[in-house]
Design goal:
Layout (H helix, E strand, L loop, with lengths): L1 H40 L3 H7 L8 H4 L4 E11 L2 E10 L5 E9 L7 E8 L13
Antiparallel strand pairs: 1-2, 2-3, 3-4
Protein name: DUF3887 domain-containing protein
Keywords: Signal
Organism: Caenorhabditis japonica
Length: 132
């Protein structure tokens, strides 16, 4: 019985630590995005390039984030940074979903920078021609 209780306590502690790490990651992403949106609003391209290393090749959703409804869908730690899965909706259009890879950066005011991004492709239904 003592062994089961010990295992339960360890699992509960691990779950609590994971929740705290996820909350910290979400807060970090939100703070970074607040800096990013402020830099967009002031047209500070030098600052934008510190907050997003690929700013010049970014899609519209990342270059005009202040014009979009932005939702943070998922955050996960990866080797040296974080991946943030985000939804960007412009007006009433279908949202675009991107994964942003964010790493530490000493020259960024948020101490983080976007180093890569890629769109999330939705799975499309395929038509099975054997039914025709």
């Amino acid at each position: 019985m003592h062994l089961y209780f010990t295992i339960f306590v360890i699992l509960a502690a691990m779950a609590s630590a994971q929740d705290e790490a996820e909350k910290a990651a979400i807060l970090t992403i939100k703070e970074h995005l607040a800096e990013y949106i402020q830099a967009i609003a002031t047209f500070d391209t030098a600052l934008l390039r510190k907050l997003n290393r690929k700013y010049d090749t970014s899609p519209f959703a990342l270059r005009a984030m202040n014009l979009h409804k932005v939702k943070l869908l998922k955050v996960e730690y990866v080797i040296l940074g974080m991946n943030a899965t985000m939804s960007f909706q412009f007006k009433d259009n279908k949202p675009d979903i991107y994964v942003l890879h964010i790493d530490k950066a000493s020259d960024s005011p948020s101490h983080w920078t976007i180093v890569d991004f890629y769109p999330v492709q939705e799975e499309r239904e395929t038509i099975d021609s054997s039914h025709y």
